[in-house]
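The protein record quoted for completeness.
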Amino acid sequence: MLKAAALLLLLLSVAGCVRAQDPDDDPSMSPEQNRARRAALGEMHRQELVNLENEAAHAIQLNSVTFFRRVYSDDFSGTMSHGQSVDKNSFIEAVQNPEVKYASFVASDISIRTYPQTAVVTCMWSFRATYRGRSINTQMRVLHVYVDGPRGWRVVAGQLTAMPPATEQPL
């Protein structure tokens, strides 16, 4: 009985030291190879998300909605910089607003946190535009939640926050 208890104690202490295998690990690879593979995949996802944020800024500057129809999910839910709740269609309407003409629109300070099948991306949108006949030069903090699915990354939620001094803005 004492031997069984000692054996159980030994097994429990060893079990705490053993790392669980990631379900995406390739069993034919060493742990080091699997870590390198995960790191490379993570970098590939990170770069893809950076590209999507830059592509969104470019699409807004051009008042082009093709990007948003492709990348924003049908159940997208967001909040504009002035607090208005929007879905995919109302966000697209804001992008198409004929009252705004963008001289420049840039996404910068892009930060990405990835989780299995999900990413949280924050960035700064800076733009110069003419809106309702007035020149504006402003910045917004942006948060996007992406979900990775069969058709790639899709934006499912977004939040825009105007940076001071807050002025009337199209988004």
Observations:
- The chain has one domain: 32-162.
